[in-house]
Every structure is written in structure tokens, then in C-alpha cells.
């Protein structure tokens, strides 16, 4: 299991491997061939950034069975997908900016898949070969703008509306990870990715038959029950087993 981070030690963004509280910068590309450098940074000496900068963020809606049954709806027959712009991506510790006039700003803890290779038309059984690893995500939504029957882009696409981090972890079973959210220290979401309607492999295969996924692109796989409302000053922390906590504040 490898933990990749993207960080700034004062010389601009670079990738590294996190081992306990030490970061080893990497030579090469984490999406291809790489090796650790001998130089070491202490975690507290650097600023963690979003662990990758995707060209696109693909999101899955209505993907937990408990959410669907709670609404009394039939299970979706195929994944519900939408896109967020790369400008929505922020890292750990960065501020989620609430747009002027929004009264209902929702949070959603999500498992995020980070793509390793160019991915197009892959079979379900081969899909995980294209995964670099997993990170935590928080799908922020201006619920005021989620008008029935209208596109979700306005509600989902604002700058800062897709925090991801704190690291990308390889070697995990993305289909069986505990996922939680803490709102001002209180746990408000508590589930496991095994409750997803469509698992990681099914999602990657489905999306890859619609669009080409490139190295560093991410797929946010949906949220369990318990999403809630944010206000300025709130602290929100998405936690996924084996990855850690993604902490952000609202302003």
C-alpha cells in the first residue's frame, strides 16, 4: 500500500510518498514510472495540496442502496453521472466558499477513484487495472439551485465545490471501506462502500464507454445517507478507512 501526496515545501507543487509523518519526493510520474528521492520532508513542514489536479471530475449520483430505499425509489438501472470542472477542486485545509445568496449548502462524503492510465471502453473485469488509488472527496452542492428537471451544473460546479485529499492510497479494496463525515466534530454520515449500487469496477467501465478518462482524472462515487447543510465557520471532515480525513472549513 502506497500513500501519494501532492505538496508544497516552498518551491511549488510536487508529488511525494507519505510514510508516517515523512514525505519522500518522487522522481518521475506517479501515473507511470517513479522512484523515491533521498530527500525527506516532515509532514508538518509542508502544505498539502489536492493530491492530483484532474482534467475532469466525474461524479456519480444516487449510488447508495440505503439512499434509494429511503426515498422509496427503484434501484437505478445504470449510473447517474454528472461532471464538475477542474476549478472546483481544492485540497485539505482549503476553504469552501459559499456563493452569495445560497441558503442551503450541502456536504457529501464520497470515495474518489483516481485514474492511472488512459482509460477507454474497458471491461468491468479489467477496470481496476486502471486505478492508481483512492482518496476522500466532499461533493459540495448549492441545494438552492437543484431545481427539479434542470441540469445540476449550477448547483455543483462552483469554485471550491470539490475538496479531495489528503492523499491517494493504492492497494485498497474500494468496494469495502468505511466512510464517514464529521460536521463540527459530530458524525453525520456513517456507511460502507459495499452499499454502493454500482461498484468501482462497474462505474469505471460505464464511464469509459462514454468518455476517455486520462491519468489523474477522478471519479467521485456517490454519498451515503446523512448529507447535511453548511454555514460559514463550519468545519467539515470526510473520513475513509485506510485513507484518512479530509478537513475543510466554510467561509
Determine the CATH superfamily of the largest domain. Answer: Fumarylacetoacetase-like, C-terminal domain
Content-based structural category: mainly beta
Work out the number of β strands: 21
CATH class of the largest domain: Alpha Beta
CATH architecture of the largest domain: Alpha-Beta Complex
Q: Could you say which overall geometry the principal axes of the C-alpha atoms support?
A: globular
Q: Give the end-to-end Cα distance, rounded to a whole number of Å.
A: 35 Å
Number of domains: 2
Structure description:
The protein is mostly beta strands and 251 residues long. The protein has two domains: 49 residues, SH3 type barrels (Roll), CATH 2.30.30; 201 residues, Fumarylacetoacetase-like, C-terminal domain (Fumarylacetoacetate hydrolase, domain 2), CATH 3.90.850. 8% of the residues lie in helices and 40% in strands. The chain contains three helices and 21 strands. The strands form three sheets. Strands 1, 2, 3, 4, 5, 6, 7, 8, 9, 12, 13, 15 and 18 form a 13-stranded mixed beta sheet that branches. It has a five-stranded mixed beta sheet with strand order 10-21-20-16-17, with no helix packed on it. Strand 2 and strand 3 form a beta hairpin.
Amino acid at each position: 500500500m502506497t500513500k501519494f501526496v501532492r505538496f508544497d515545501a516552498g518551491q511549488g507543487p510536487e508529488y511525494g510518498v507519505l510514510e508516517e509523518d515523512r514525505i519522500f519526493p518522487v522522481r518521475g510520474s506517479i501515473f507511470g514510472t517513479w522512484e523515491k528521492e533521498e530527500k525527506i520532508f516532515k509532514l508538518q513542514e509542508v502544505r498539502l495540496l489536492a493530491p492530483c489536479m484532474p482534467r475532469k471530475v466525474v461524479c456519480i449520483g444516487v449510488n447508495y442502496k440505503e439512499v434509494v430505499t429511503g426515498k422509496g425509489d427503484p434501484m437505478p438501472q445504470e449510473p447517474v453521472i454528472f461532471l464538475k470542472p477542474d476549478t472546483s477542486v481544492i485540497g485539505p485545509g482549503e476553504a469552501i466558499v459559499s456563493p452569495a445568496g445560497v441558503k442551503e449548502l450541502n456536504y457529501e462524503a464520497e470515495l474518489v477513484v483516481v485514474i492511472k492510465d488512459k482509460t477507454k471502453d474497458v471491461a468491468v473485469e479489467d477496470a481496476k487495472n486502471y486505478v492508481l488509488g483512492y482518496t476522500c472527496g466532499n461533493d459540495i452542492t448549492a441545494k438552492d439551485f437543484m431545481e427539479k428537471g434542470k441540469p445540476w451544473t449550477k448547483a455543483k460546479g462552483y469554485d471550491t465545490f470539490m475538496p479531495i485529499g489528503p492523499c491517494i492510497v493504492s492497494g485498497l479494496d474500494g468496494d469495502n471501506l468505511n466512510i464517514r463525515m464529521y460536521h463540527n466534530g459530530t458524525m453525520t454520515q456513517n456507511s460502507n462502500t459495499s452499499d454502493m449500487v454500482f461498484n468501482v469496477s462497474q462505474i469505471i467501465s460505464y464511464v469509459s464507454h462514454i468518455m476517455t478518462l486520462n491519468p489523474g482524472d477522478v471519479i467521485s462515487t456517490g454519498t451515503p445517507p446523512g448529507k447535511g447543510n453548511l454555514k460559514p465557520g463550519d468545519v467539515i471532515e470526510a473520513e475513509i478507512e485506510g485513507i484518512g480525513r479530509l478537513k475543510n472549513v466554510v467561509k
